[in-house]
Amino acid sequence: MKIKQLIILILAGIFISSCGSKKKTVSSESPRAQRTESVERTHRPDAPVKNYANVVEEYISNFANIAQEEMRLYKIPASITLAQGILESGAGRGDLSLRANNHFGIKCHEWKGDRVYHDDDSSQECFRKYNDPKYSYRDHSLFLSERKRYAGLFDLKIDDYEGWAKGLRSAGYATDKLYPKKLIDIIERYELHKFDEEVLGIKGTLRRSPVVERDGPVHRVQQGDTLYSIARRYNTTVENIQKKNNLRDTTISIGQELVVP
Question: Which domains, and CATH codes, for the chain?
Answer without folding.
Answer: 52-105+131-200 (1.10.530.10), 218-259 (3.10.350.10)
